[in-house]
UniProtKB/TrEMBL annotation:
The lineage of its organism: Bacteria, Bacillati, Actinomycetota, Actinomycetes, Jiangellales. Residues 1-20 are annotated as: Disordered. This is Uncharacterized protein.
Amino acid sequence: MPRYVRVKSPTTKHEFDVPETDPRLKRGLLTRIKDDRYPPVDRPRRAKHFIPRKQAAVAVEIPKEPTDG
C-alpha cells in the first residue's frame, strides 16, 4: 500500500498529497512539507489551494452629479 506525503507546488503554491514514490519529488518539481506537521498517511488528505490576495485594490470612479451653481 502506498504512503502519501504532503507537498507544495512552488509554481502554484497549492498543497496536496502524493505517493512517496512520485517522480516529481525526485526531480524537484514539488517541495515536501515538514513531516512533523503532516506525517505520511495511508490515504491522501484534502488539498489546500492557494488563492492569492489582490495586490492592489481597484479604484472605481463614481461619476459626480452636476452641481447647480
